[in-house]
Amino acid sequence: MLATEIAVAPPLGFDEAVYALGGRSLVGVERSYYPDYRPAGMRAVAALGVLAGGKDWQLRIVPAALALAFGAAAIRLARRWHGAAAARLVAACLLAWPQLVERGAQLLSDLPAALAGLVALGELIAATERDEPHPLRRAALAGTAAAASFWLRYGAVVAIAATGAAVLVARPRRWRLLAVFAAIVVAAIAPWLWYSEHQTGSLAGIALDAQHAAGNPHVGAGLATYASGWFVTIAGPVVGVVALIGIYAAARRRSTPWAIAALAAVVQLIGLG
Predict the structure, then answer these.
(1) Quick one: average pLDDT of 202-228?
(2) Could you please report the per-residue DSSP string of 63-125?
(3) pTM of this prediction?
């Protein structure tokens, strides 16, 4: 399916072209302007496609591979948390998810950042399990994955915060591991904050520029978009219904990994609004 998208896809869209130009500049093919509010990590993703040849279909190979990795990670977590039946359900939902089917191979930041964020969520939950033999290692890996998610999409900071908050609410006694996670994330974001202050005079300057570029007219506009398009363009009818059922079921079993993931998702949706 993703191979077909690569083979017959139309020319790069606007956002894809911006990332492609950033990748070409990164490897020295040409010098071009790359906006500060665009994630620096996407330049590296695009650069791999440039090194592979630089044609539109070659630029989409790495995003397609990351989309497949996202699907594999989601299925693996489902199997770990709830067994083979849950893994099969997640696999079916992925095939019915419009964002993956229609945009999985596009040179965009959504799925690469989501992959890193999903790894961070899974590892942080695993780190806080009582029977985990290497909790510190998993917490460090979760922090590293969360940092990668941020550099692939600056807006992922909302998802990162939601992940940490959900785990803290569900397992407050494991706060030391959360501190390790947070320390790694803060250390990774610190250079971006310094650069934002240097370029705009404000720690949040680049983030505000990104919000302006996204065209959100007021607080709550993002949440309204998610609510109005949940069953259409965002989750789709199948995934939308399954997700809502899963959130409801998870609310009744608050300490389980699935419940923590559901809480993180809800907090993230509210935060993006």
Answers:
(1) 70
(2) HHHHHHHHHHHHHHHHHHHH-HHHHHHHHHHHHT-HHHHHHTTSS-SHHHHHHHHHHHHHHHH
(3) 0.91
